[in-house]
Amino acid sequence: MAGDEEQLDLGLPTPDAPRRVAPTATSKPRPDPAPELPVARVLVDTGLAHLDRPFDYLVPAMLHEAAVPGCRVKVRFAGRQTDGFLLERVAISEHEGTLAPLSKVVSPESVLAPEIVTLARAVVERWSGTTGDVLRLAIPPRHARTEARDRPPTLSGDLPDVAVPGLPRRAVMSVPPTQDGAEVVAHAVLAALHDGRGAIVCVPDARDLVRWDATFTRVLGEGRHVVLATDQGPAARYRAFLAARRGDVPVVLGTRAAAWAPVHDLGLVAMWDDGDDLFAEPRAPYAHTREVLLTRAVQHDAGVLLAGHARSVESQALVESGWCADVTPGGASWRSAWARLQVTDGSSHGSAPARLPSEVFQAVRDAEGAVLVQVPRRGYRAALSCQGCREPARCPACSGPLVQLAAGTRLVCRWCATSVAAWSCPHCGGTRLRAPVVGQLRTAEEYARAFPDHEVVTSGGADILATVAPGRRIVLATPGAEPRVEGGYAVVVLMDTWLALGRDDVRVVEEAHRRWFNALALAAPEARTIAVGDASMLQALVRADPVGLAHRELEIRRETHLPPWGRLVTLDGPLDVLAGLAARTWTPHTEVLGPVPLERRDDDAQRLVLRAPRSEGAELVRLLQALAAERSAAKLPAVRVQVDPQTF
DNA sequence: TCAATCCGTATC
DNA sequence: ATACGGATTGAC
């Protein structure tokens, strides 16, 4: 072999020499630099955490006109053609070496607004992750045909001159069922337009957009808003995005993607039902829509409106900190706007079918209009609670939820994996535990049999109805999938409420109430409303008091040092990696919990949980960023990091 | 002493 | 991922 190689070397001196010289000899002559600002600062989409910063490139004279700030470019990076965004043009580079030229300007359309770069950086500092990850959420994929189309002519009538109710600049608003949320929010947007500023409005579900769109058109007039949602397809989404970016419309209404819309001169950010888990972004870095919008409000000194029938713990924290005002519109008494709620236990007697409480049977049978029956979904993992006082059983070490992985085994904490041999209730001293039993759902067939005079329709899972026609029918819906009916339901029934409370998550009580309040808000003013469950557990519902409930839940979060009081971070990865991370130095008061096994995972991934005071949150995220950079530089597999996850 | 190779690090 | 530089190794 050695001889062969020597022969090869000796035998091919001439072809070898040009090959070695080739790169310098034939490398393209340096293109003429652009006459002004010849340096482009480019955010290169490498997907690598340690390369999450701008790189300087030379703008060739040929690309001088097209290479505008915010445009998409292609550059040669580490030997490959890579996508990037041109952040800005500058006169000189800080870079010591020679600059590579921009390979190409994909399109001279400026898709990345400077304020979105600032926003992306703020989001990354709060939730960890890379700017590239964030920009993927903020900027829809390019649709060239849409981009090429001429701008739609701006329909410029005068703004409707409707009296706009004055609102505090930042408000958390409790909207009674007698008021239409879309209408209330649209008027706040109209006020922003009268100030000459733009607005973003986010609703949880694409299902709501048709109705909100119509209301906005009616209140704001034609052509002042666009609808932006990911489910409307790439062309429509890009069209709405461009309309905002080009300043053709001042208002963007949409689902969580709309929170990133580059609306010009943003004067209001608004949300409906901010507690809805659809606002929790499922893609890294998992930033919550509410937090994105609040960041923008701070950035642009814009107004804030968080409106809904229910009250999220985070909204309540904004009120209690004094940052937002607490507002109830309409003037009428909040309590009287809600139908009186009857609570019944699950017993059936008389002519009622087994498993259907008598009060429910009679109310449904006597109903003249549409009936909504909210039935819990099944499949929740049950958390344990005290048999005596029904307080959740909590870990003595970290206040995490206790679960029993198999019958007869010890209790174990789902957060820190502490094993508890002898449990006793700190509230009542009881030592017996109960696990809510997930019961059989009433099926549509059972209802059809019990109520032969009614049509029975279902809404839930993959088949969710947005609306049903008024009339004598029964609508069986899972929580969150309740259709609206013109004029409201004659009867609303919340079935088996204890099942929703049995799920093992810090947010269960808040989340269950949010869905109950939203279902009850669909009732007609004179409707009959019934909840099946334990009256002592449903006091907030009976008193129509979402604020009191949110206040109590917020206090529990304070006691357990959970968000929004503390910062909580989950780190998912292989056990050996997590062991190293558990031993790492975090901030002075960071507690390390776990690792604990992840359910629904067949690989060996486990979860480590970090809990820190909020004052150390920024520093903790910096350390997480450093960890990600370190691992990406060392070509190690990434650890999944979630800051303040929605479910825990 | 020099060249081939390996490893770590930067990537404009 | 490549590309490069410095360190290392090994042959003369």
Structural features, described:
The protein is an alpha/beta fold and 648 residues long. 29% of the residues lie in helices and 23% in strands. It has 18 helices and 29 strands. It has a 7-stranded parallel β-sheet, with helices on both faces. It has a 6-stranded parallel β-sheet with strand order 13-25-24-14-22-20, with helices on both faces. The protein is globular. The termini are far apart. The protein binds a DNA duplex (12 and 12 nucleotides) through residues 39-42, 44, 46, 48, 50-51, 54-58, 75-80, 93, 95-100, 633.
Task: Describe, in short, the structure shown.
With 648 residues, the chain is α/β, with parallel strands linked by helices.
Question: Keywords, please?
Answer:
648 residues, alpha/beta, 7-stranded parallel beta sheet, 6-stranded parallel beta sheet, 29 strands, 29% helix, globular, disordered N terminus
